Amino acid sequence: MNHQPFETWLLNDEPLTPEEQRSLQQHLTTCEHCRTLSGAWSEVEHLMRSAPVPQPPSGFVGRFQIRLHAYQARRTRRQAWLLVLLNVGGMVVITGIFLALLLLTVQSPLDWLVASTQQVMRLLALLKAVGNTALTVWRWLPPAWWLVSLELLFTGTLLWIVSLRKFIPPRRVSQ
User: Fold this and answer.
1) Which range of residues forms the domain containing residue 36?
2) Radius of gyration in angstroms for the set of CA atoms belonging to the chain, rounded to a whole number
3) pLDDT 10s per residue in the chain (175 long)?
4) pTM, to two decimals
């Protein structure tokens, strides 16, 4: 005998329409299998509802938190190493491409040495110009302006730190 959809209706928690309810009751009067299933399921539901809620063993929360912190520490270390390896790999690839391009554009090592020396000299000249400009500005501005500038710098830094503390949630360390 086909017991579908009656078994599904018996084991499902969803309410039945009046027509489905009438059909189920009619089937239960004629089918011993479904009647037994209905009675057994009612007993099982009663046992599940009356069973006490299991409590975790003592110390479970502490052990779980210790394992959780250890897992998070391992995951953080693994992510840090992955990031370091990706950065090193990227630098190696970029350096390789740079060296390949350098070898393709330079006819001799002497040309490369001359070009490098010129770049270093330009950098030194730029640093000297920045230093001279800074000294000129230092002598030109009165001390009160320097105090105001330092105060603005300090206030901006303080606001930045406060905003970081507000927007970045603190790490929770539980013991």
Assistant:
1) 6-50
2) 39
3) 567 887 888 888 788 888 888 888 888 888 888 888 888 888 988 888 898 988 888 899 899 999 999 999 999 999 999 999 999 999 999 999 988 887 777 777 787 788 889 999 999 999 999 999 988 888 888 888 888 988 999 999 999 988 887 777 777 666 5
4) 0.35
Residues 119 and 101 in one domain: no
Residue type, 6: F
Q: Answer for the pair 102, 112: CB distance below 8 angstroms, yes or no.
A: yes
Residue 114 shares a structural domain with residue 95: no
Please give the single-letter amino acid code of residue 131.
G
Q: How far apart are CA 4 and CA 16, in angstroms?
A: 15
- Output the DSSP codes for 15-54: PPPHHHHHHHHHHHHH-HHHHHHHHHHHHHHHHHHHSPPP
